[in-house]
Design a protein that fits this description.
The chain has 285 residues and is of the alpha+beta class. It has 2 domains: 10-197, no CATH class; 216-284, 2-Layer Sandwich (Herpes Virus-1). It contains 10 helices and 6 strands. Helix 1 (18-45) packs antiparallel against helix 2 (47-55), helix 3 (57-76) runs antiparallel to helix 5 and helix 5 packs across helix 6 (146-177). It starts with a strand and ends with a strand. It is a multi-pass membrane protein.
């Protein structure tokens, strides 16, 4: 089903849309809770074997997240969720250009890994402690001793800090949308990074082996079958499938938006079109 959800327009020329920014953040935030449900299920089904998974879940996820984010930062200069939506981390300062390929400079890579993995882990642990103290305070378990008074003060201080942080995130995003900064989040601003759309992968070239395989399968000249459910531009499975109404072809959002913005035509039919006509597809199954 196609929906004109704000037409996937961009806030600034050459910058990712707010949809991509919000979508990748939402994806990143859903992975940990989803895996936790799995750990809890395993602990219930077989507590003798898997109870430790639930007990040490935060630490297990820390290790998994570290490996996952390190891989994507090293090979794609992006986090897992950013790469999923075709985004790329780029230094704002010209002096911090990539050393080789698309890999980030080592300092920015380590800083990104720290903010992506360790900081959220510490934040979750602090929240668990504060939540426990808050419950004790509501139950009247925190008395008037110095330590309990300190816990009450920590609860209030954390609430204030949380409010200030959320407000700062909103202000940073608003400044990004209005073109006053190139960093969409506080983490990016701290590291001096911005985000851009990753270049599409190089399409695979036909070779003699493809010819013989096609002859054997009876698919000579049948590129429609070869590239079924794939973007006509990058020849890869769709990332954020988007249809261009003027021609009816379905592309990756990043691929078609770049081409339309630069050429004003459909990449396949060359019919004139604009970026405002792009329609996001929500595919089921």
């Amino acid at each position: 089903m196609a929906v004109y959800a704000a037409h996937l327009t961009r806030t600034l020329q050459g910058t990712p849309s707010i949809f991509q920014i919000a979508a990748q953040e939402a994806l990143g935030a859903t992975v940990k809770p989803a895996l936790k449900r799995l750990a809890e299920y395993l602990a219930v089904v077989n507590p003798q074997r898997y109870a430790w998974c639930e007990r040490w879940y935060d630490e297990l996820y820390l290790l998994l997240d570290f490996c996952l984010q390190y891989h994507y930062l090293k090979h794609y200069a992006s986090s897992f969720s950013e790469c999923f939506y075709g985004l790329l981390r780029v230094p704002i300062s010209p002096s911090n250009e990539f050393h080789s390929g698309v890999r980030l400079p080592e300092l920015l890579e380590k800083g990104s890994l720290l903010l992506l993995v360790l900081v959220p882990y510490i934040k979750d642990k602090v929240e668990q402690i504060i939540e426990k103290w808050r419950e004790d305070n509501e139950d009247g378990k925190l008395g008037k001793s110095t330590s309990n008074q300190a816990r009450k003060a920590a609860i209030k201080l954390y609430s204030i800090a949380h409010f200030v942080l959320e407000a700062a995130k909103f202000i940073q995003l608003a400044r990004y949308l209005t073109g006053r900064t190139l960093s969409p989040t506080l983490d990016f601003a701290l590291l001096g990074l911005t985000v851009k759309e990753a270049p599409p992968p190089e399409p695979e070239e036909y070779c003699w082996s493809d010819l013989f395989k096609s002859l054997w399968a009876g698919q000579i000249g049948d590129q429609a079958v070869r590239w079924k459910n794939k973007c006509p531009v990058c020849l890869q499975p769709w990332k954020v499938p988007t249809v261009l109404p003027v021609s009816g072809f379905v592309f990756c959002y990043g691929c078609v938006s770049r081409h339309v913005r630069a050429n004003g035509t459909c990449p396949v039919t060359k019919l004139p079109t604009t970026e405002r006509t792009l329609v996001r597809l929500y595919l089921s199954g």
